[in-house]
UniProtKB/TrEMBL annotation, chain A:
Primary localization class, coarse: membrane
All copies of domain ABC transmembrane type-1, residue ranges: 86-294
Name this protein carries in UniProt: Phosphate transport system permease protein PstA
Transmembrane segments: 27-57, 85-112, 133-154, 160-179, 200-222, 275-297
GO cellular component, one term: plasma membrane
Topological type in the membrane: Multi-pass membrane protein
Cell compartment(s), UniProt: Cell membrane
Keywords, comma-separated and alphabetical: Cell membrane, Membrane, Phosphate transport, Transmembrane, Transmembrane helix, Transport
GO molecular function, one term: phosphate transmembrane transporter activity
Automatic annotation (TrEMBL), chain B:
Keywords from the named record: Cell membrane, Membrane, Phosphate transport, Transmembrane, Transmembrane helix, Transport
Span of domain ABC transmembrane type-1: 107-331
Subcellular location: Cell membrane
A Gene Ontology term for the protein's cellular component: plasma membrane
Segments crossing the lipid bilayer: 57-74, 111-132, 152-172, 198-221, 242-263, 312-335
The protein's name: Phosphate transport system permease protein
Gene Ontology molecular function: phosphate transmembrane transporter activity
Domain of life assignment: Bacteria
Function: Part of the binding-protein-dependent transport system for phosphate; probably responsible for the translocation of the substrate across the membrane.
GO biological process: phosphate ion transport
Membrane-topology annotation of the record: Multi-pass membrane protein
Pfam families, alphabetized: BPD_transp_1
UniProtKB/TrEMBL annotation, chains C, E:
Domain ABC transporter intervals: 20-268
Lineage: superkingdom: Bacteria
GO biological process, one term: phosphate ion transmembrane transport
PANTHER family: ABC TRANSPORTER I FAMILY MEMBER 17
Molecular-function GO term, any one: ATP hydrolysis activity
Keyword Nucleotide-binding: yes
Cellular compartments per GO CC: membrane
Protein name: Phosphate ABC transporter, ATP-binding protein
Keyword field: ATP-binding, Nucleotide-binding, Phosphate transport, Transport
Length: 304, 347, 273, 330, 273
């Protein structure tokens, strides 16, 4: 019968061999690759755990409420905290996010929806990609020239602008990518119902692309929260609270966890170094919690 | 810069920009009273135009920002460009006293460390992305792993720098010494590892770009239509035959984009590199030799640069931007050809 | 063998309604590829017009001209005109968005939005700022699309969680919810079973009293059953290209009973018992 | 003009002084300013260690109220400040050669010849004759010498190269003096940012030697080399020996005193003053007053904590001169 | 109203070939949702078996059990057995990949790969390390799928550049290129025009001589035309769920001419003229 003919053609015996067998090179190959990627994934997690263990081990023992309520200690001083740096980080990163996220998403909407093939888009896309390679220090230098020198002093908004510059390309590019992934047929359906391009973007594309956009935003926020170099030129640091006695000193030098870690990890004093580790741990935990919140938002959005 | 000309999608957009409300009014006159349908109200049209104008404005804002940054850097670099010219690219001294400057070792170091990082980080990043999208693990575990990897992005570079010094270098040292002694004839192991150097820098760098690469390739992979995967499986492909033959090629533009983005990040990384690369004006193929990168040079010298050094540093920054630009141009070129091939428009 | 397009003048004159949508495609290009040529298809109010023909002959392309859906395709070029109530919808001043509010569409492949079933149907109502009872309209539309019983308990579930056939019916419900003046349907039943198909066909007959419907179908029986007039398109492979064109357009009964063109005869006789 | 003063904004009484600059005295300043701020109602002093050069840049750019530097401003820098400059030595410190040779039980002893050669890249192994000569009976390892230097431009480098250039003509003609100099090119010369970067790299690299501020080496428990001074004596880097180095220095009118190679018998060879940079005129007189009282506090109460933290207290005579000079601030 | 499953024993005994694929679905779950229950469908060598039934009754689910395609769906659980040549393909030692190598599949929605037309067809051949003349096999498969004439000049173009119908025929070509023993087709013609459909049907008749085919279709005429045996599935909505089950499975002629169950009768009488 023909079956036999085909079987020989494909180098197989008459009766089907259905059993999983390692002697099949294809099966073996598949299993080896699976193990390979699994191992690669686990290996890639090793550094993370190594860093995290280092953080937990070195920073964990300092954890206490005082870290959140007290000001940074000086040399040979015991105790102390970095409450002002936590508040400062939140303020600076919020300013940066308030600039970069809307700007980035709106740009991405243009790139993905309104004029994906236009010259404007290709120029803007190209610029966004160029920005990804912008050394963080240059973002600081730019914000220094544009804001610090113009306003006459180091300030939280200057830091926010510098960080926004670093967040912007990540937000733009990931948001664009995830908006492009929205199935064309879904957009077609909306257009076919007489949606204006804006309505298509708002009602279909943005909600559908939300999880991807959030991934990008989280990456950007995480990066911004950990950046030191640009803040040294813009927000500097402060050993005092940004909000105190009911007044705010937003236009003053502002503390941030990243600069705190940078300063204190380099001091020759035990207490300071431990503080730096504790601050790193707190910073990572803060980013983690933002991440979790983002994920909850995106999974909620998906259901409704 | 007028882009209303070429494509149909643009004319589709242009109609609203040019079209007057008259046309809509006539159509609405025609509307049957029975119909629920109503033409877009003038409010909707105004909103639509305003919003599209707004997004276009923001797109230009991005361009403007880059232009301003480049302008700022270029004007500040001008004195150095006229003073040092092309020799800046080919010489390798950095002597503030005698005003002799060259960044050849830094250019080499930037490319070398970033390529190494891309090689390592790219491999692991894409592997992770595959592992986390192709149903190897239960969904919850996938999400947990994804979060763990993205957490890597949250760690400040300074911490990476410290981790590199206190954990990575001591771990590498025995291996490096062994490689140098036994395999010293291989150019990569030519020198012994003193401490900071290319390999530790590239290793830490690759971990720093890992989240970017893996998160974006993950998105690209998970967006491959399920039906394609089913088609491959239906033909009797093993999981990996489907992944390699169909899924990865379909997601390849996204993955490539992730790699370019990761490479960009690696080129511009500052603090951790300044702590780990050794900051020495060396140009060596050896993995263990200390070196320097443009970003580390900037980080180390900029905060205290005097009048003489600042323009030179800006010149170096300009070169770094140019390298990034070049990488992106190459990336765009490759992508264009690859996706054209995939769409198969022409022969 | 290749017949020239032939539009019976009396169809224009003797339609059972006034001329609502006058489609005259001289040439339709995708980039350099001419997909359709010389097809004049006038569509009358309150009628159902079917487009039949072999795969790739440009039925979908022609249909998508009628509400300017093709504007979205890069490289698309259109020569000719489409008059909706005497106005050329391809006039440069016309807003394609407004056109599509009046001329709704159901696609070949189901394409529900990534939102709940209820919101999928309510989408168009909200878009058109409908002020009445939305829930009522949603139910009506879902019933009309023969989907109500299956989804009434899970209106909050995502539209994407339905089976293929259910998804397509959801899309039909979504399109008819706003009661557009003209409804374009590109093989709306190709993913449906006969019972659901029959319900959709009945629905078309109902809608036809107030609305005008154009449908692309592969199912000649379906064309016979529902359409008042049928346009038969075919592919002209002379000259190397594969350009679709209108062979014959006339009352359905006439077309099936006494086709005038050889191509039509052959195609129809290939019909299944 | 400086707007970063808190005085400009809030309720009249409150004054905020913002400073930035050298990292070398930063731990001491941090402590002084915090103690002073908490002791003084309505005044807040803040200081950010970004390096001497950074401080001078800020000072010229008027983005701070005062700055600090290990290398006093030079004339061309001073000329850029319209409001005039007052340079005030606040404390002094020593720079040590820290190393990583786990095998050694006793501190390493280095002759002038040996350590200049090390930093000129002319000694490649620890068991080199030049080192062995001053370390008799010590079993020096056959390890390569890895030199760790500052990667950033720094006052510490300035003071150290200033000393080396004073000691060795080869060094003066080669790398020379500067906040960053052209060090020999070799894969055994590694650069690290800031004092702590150098300290950490030395700690992690067997066979490494580098120059850091005394406090960093001490806190990190790194061994420090005993160095030969101008008088030919081998001096350990202790506080007394460093204090002895300051003893014989004449303070010039502008208070820019350099000590490239102190001459005293028991003087540790690498020491330097570190300066506070203030404007001559402040728009806000409250700021000027606050600054003056701050400096006075540091010169008197403050000096008590200097020694405890590894810095050299100012000699009485210098305190008097500085106090006098302080009055020129308006 | 709801009939219990009824498998005619004589079908088992009197098939025109030996029992090749014995499918017995006791329960089929997606997560907590029971999609199919109690369906025993024995498939004989060299026959064409059709699955009919209303949308959502689990035809696709049942079909996809036959080559373990459902394994890819998260939450999928299967109770029962599927014997291929007497071996249970759900046995823990069986490699689903090997199963699919013998039991090919064509899907409801065209799903060509983002590669050239040629490579789309050659994909399966390369996968099986076919050593013969690949180009020849590709041509043969494309001819078999009635697509050769349309694409022979553009084999290097992307499979995605074809029209929907052409894409589906490409997918059929891809599946038959490796000449599997059993071919599962999930509404393969729902996107095709009658001529192409007829060619595919003819092709099925040809293939049937050597291969065994199971097809899901909405088109009762199609089932009548091509299938030797037909399985009618229906939905049981009692108890709140919507569980599909096998109502009747017998020779096609018998099923259409003298249906035994009420549900079948009703469904078939809804059939179109
Ligand atoms: N977006 C497009 N870009 C380029 N060519 C296209 C595009 N859409 C369709 N075509 C081509 O135009 C021709 C007509 O396609 P169309 O989809 O209108 O045919 P159809 O009659 O609807 O076919 P089917 O019955 O398969 O849906 C085909 O040759 C097709 O390849
Ligand atoms: N992957 C899945 N996850 C959850 N439920 C599913 C899945 N696939 C199908 N279902 C559900 O299982 C039931 C049977 O679906 P199936 O696709 O098998 O029906 P069908 O008879 O093929 O329908 P159609 O004719 O519309 O294709 C439906 O209620 C459907 O909603
Ligand atoms: Mg079509
Ligand atoms: Mg199905
Ligand atoms: O104090 P410095 O950082 O300039 O050495």
């Amino acid at each position: 019968m023909n079956t036999a003919e085909i079987s020989t053609e494909f180098g197989d015996v008459d009766f089907p061999r259905l059993e999983r067998s390692l002697r099949h090179p294809r099966t073996l190959f598949s299993i080896l690759l699976s193990i390979g990627t699994g191992v690669a994934t686990v290996i890639a997690c090793v550094p993370l755990f190594s860093v995290l263990i280092m953080l937990v081990y070195r920073g964990g023992k300092k954890l206490s409420l005082a870290l959140f309520t007290e000001l940074p200690p000086t040399a040979f001083e015991e105790g102390g905290g970095f409450g002002n740096a936590i508040v400062g980080t939140i303020v600076i990163v919020s300013i940066a996010a308030a600039i970069a996220i809307p700007a980035g998403i709106l740009t991405a909407v243009f790139l993905a929806e309104f004029g994906p093939q236009s010259k404007t888009a290709s120029v803007a896309r190209f610029c966004a990609k160029t920005l990804t390679g912008l050394p963080s220090i240059l973002a600081g230098v730019f914000a220094y020239a544009a804001i610090v020198l113009a306003t006459g002093g180091y300030s939280a908004p200057a830091g926010g602008v510098a960080l926004a510059l670093l967040m912007l390309p990540t937000v733009i590019l990931t948001a664009e990518e995830s908006m492009r992934m929205v199935p064309v047929k879904m957009k077609e359906a909306a257009i076919g119902m007489g949606c204006t391009p804006t309505q298509v973007a708002w009602k279909i594309v943005l909600p559908t692309a939300l999880p991807g956009i959030l991934t990008g935003v989280m990456l950007a926020v995480a990066r911004a929260a950990g950046e030191t170099a640009p803040l040294l030129f813009t927000a500097l640091f402060s050993n005092y609270w940004i909000f105190e006695d009911g007044s705010s000193q937003v236009m003053e030098p502002t503390a941030s966890l990243a600069v705190f870690i940078y300063n204190f990890s380099g001091m020759p004093f035990e207490n300071q170094i431990e503080m730096a580790w504790a601050a790193s741990l707190i910073l990572v935990l803060m980013v983690l919690s933002i991440n979790i919140v983002g994920q909850i938002i995106s999974s909620r959005a998906k259901v409704s | 810069m007028d882009d209303s000309s070429v494509t149909a999608i643009d004319s589709y957009l242009a109609v609203l920009f040019l079209g007057d409300l008259m046309a809509n009014a006539t159509l609405s006159d025609l509307a049957e009273s029975a119909s629920i349908s109503s033409p877009p109200s003038s409010m909707e049209i105004v909103k639509d135009r305003a919003f599209r104008g707004l997004t276009r404005g923001f797109a230009w804002l991005t361009v403007l920002v880059v232009f301003l940054v480049v302008f700022e850097v270029a004007t500040k670099a001008m004195p150095a460009i006229s003073a040092h010219g092309v020799s800046f690219l080919t010489s390798s001294t950095w002597d503030v006293q005698n005003e002799q400057f060259g960044v050849l070792p830094e250019i080499w170091g930037t490319l070398y460390s970033s390529l190494l990082a891309l090689l390592i980080g790219g491999f692991f990043g894409v592997s992770i992305a595959i592992f986390l999208t192709q149903d190897f693990l239960p969904h919850q575990v996938e999400v947990a792993f994804k979060n763990i990897v993205e957490l890597l992005a949250a760690i400040p570079s300074v911490v990476y720098g410290l981790w590199g010094i206190f954990v990575v270098i001591p771990m590498l040292r025995p291996f490096a010494n062994w490689a140098h002694e036994n395999l010293g004839w291989i150019p990569f192991f030519k020198t012994s590892l003193s401490g900071p150097g290319m390999l530790p820098a590239a290793l830490v760098l690759s971990i720093m770009i890992l989240p970017t690469v893996s998160a974006i390739s993950r998105d690209a992979l998970s967006n491959v239509p399920r039906k394609l995967k089913e088609a491959a499986f239906g033909l009797g492909a093993t999981r990996w035959e489907a992944i390699i033959g169909v899924i990865v090629p379909t997601a390849s533009t996204g993955i490539f984009g992730a790699l370019v983005l990761g490479f960009g990040r690696a080129l511009g990384e500052t603090m951790a590199l300044a702590m780990l690369v050794g900051n020495s004006n060396q140009m060596s193929i050896s993995l263990f030799s200390p070196g320097n990168t443009l970003a580390a040079l900037l980080a180390n010298h900029f905060p205290e640069a005097g009048e003489r050094e600042e323009p030179v540093l800006m010149y170096a920054a300009l070169i770094l931007l140019a390298i990034t630009l070049l990488v992106n141009i190459c990336g765009a070129f490759v992508l264009k050809h690859a996706s054209a091939r995939m769409r198969g428009g022409a022969k | 063998m290749i017949a020239t397009p032939k539009v019976e003048n009396d169809v224009l004159a003797n339609g059972n309604g006034s001329l609502l949508l006058d489609c005259n495609i001289e040439n339709l290009y995708y980039g350099n590829f001419r997909a359709v040529r010389d097809s004049h298809i006038p569509i009358h109010r309150g009628s159902i017009t079917a487009f039949i023909g072999p795969s790739g002959c440009g039925k979908s392309s022609a249909l998508r001209c009628l509400n300017r859906m093709n504007d979205l395709v890069r490289g698309f070029r259109f020569e000719g005109h489409v008059h909706f109530r005497g106005k050329d919808i391809y006039h440069s001043k016309v807003d394609p968005v407004a056109v599509r509010r009046y001329i709704g569409m159901v696609f070949q492949q189901p394409n529900p939005f990534a939102m709940s079933i209820y919101n999928n149907v309510a989408f168009g109502l909200r878009l058109n700022r409908y002020r009445g009872n939305i829930a009522e309209k949603v139910e009506k539309a879902l019933r009309g699309a023969a989907l109500w019983d299956e989804v009434k308990d899970k209106l909050k579930n995502s539209g994407l969680s339905l089976s293929g056939g259910q998804q397509q019916r959801l899309c039909i419900a979504r399109a008819i919810a706003t009661e557009p003046e003209v409804l374009l349907m590109d093989e709306p039943c190709s993913a449906l079973d006969p019972i659901a198909t029959r319900r959709i066909e009945d629905l078309m007959q109902e809608l036809k009293e107030n609305y005008t419907i154009a449908i692309v179908t592969h199912n000649l029986q379906q064309a016979k059953r529902v359409a008042d007039r049928t346009a038969f398109m075919y592919v002209d492979t002379s000259g190397g290209g594969r350009t679709g064109y209108l062979v014959e357009f006339r009352d359905t009964d006439e077309l099936f009973d006494s086709p005038q063109e050889d191509a039509t005869k052959q195609y129809i006789s290939g019909e299944f018992s | 003009s400086s707007s970063s003063g808190g005085g400009s904004g809030s309720s009249g009484q409150n004054v905020k002084l913002q400073g930035s600059g050298a990292s070398f005295p930063a731990p001491l300043y941090g402590r002084w300013f915090k103690e002073y701020s908490s002791a003084t109602e309505g005044v807040k002093v803040d200081y950010q260690a970004k390096g001497s050069g950074g401080g001078i840049k800020d000072f010229i750019g008027h983005t701070v109220d005062f700055a600090a530097s290990d290398a006093a401003m030079n004339d061309s820098e001073i000329a850029q400040v319209d409001d005039g400059v007052v340079l005030l030595p606040m404390t002094a410190g020593s720079i040590v050669l820290a190393y990583n040779l786990a095998e050694l039980k006793k501190p390493l002893v280095l002759s002038r010849d040996a350590y200049t050669k090390i930093f000129l890249g002319q000694i490649s192994k620890w068991n080199d004759a030049a080192i062995a000569a001053t370390n008799e009976g010590v079993d020096l390892p056959d390890l390569p010498v890895t030199v760790v230097r500052r990667a950033d431009s720094s006052g510490t480098t300035f003071v150290f190269t200033n000393h080396l250039s004073a000691v060795s003509k080869d060094f003066a003609d080669g790398p020379g003096v500067g906040k960053s100099v052209n060090w020999p090119e070799s894969d055994k010369f590694i650069a690290a940012p800031k004092n702590d970067g150098v300290t950490a790299t030395i700690m992690q690299t067997p066979g490494a030697i580098g120059y850091v501020e005394f406090g960093f080496a001490e806190q990190a428990k790194l061994p420090m080399a005993t160095l030969e001074n101008a008088a030919g004596k081998f001096i350990e880097p202790t506080l007394e020996n460093a204090t002895a180095a300051l003893a014989g220095v004449e303070m010039p009118e502008d208070l820019r005193a350099w000590l490239p190679d102190p001459t005293g018998e028991g003087a540790y060879p690498i020491v330097s003053y570190t300066w506070l940079l203030c404007y001559e005129k402040y728009e806000d007189s409250a700021k000027a007053d606050a600054l003056k009282s701050l400096v006075k506090w540091c010169l008197h109460q403050g000096q008590e904590s200097s020694a405890e933290m590894g810095y050299i207290p100012l000699p009485e005579s210098v305190v008097a001169t500085v106090t006098e000079k302080l009055e020129s601030i308006k």
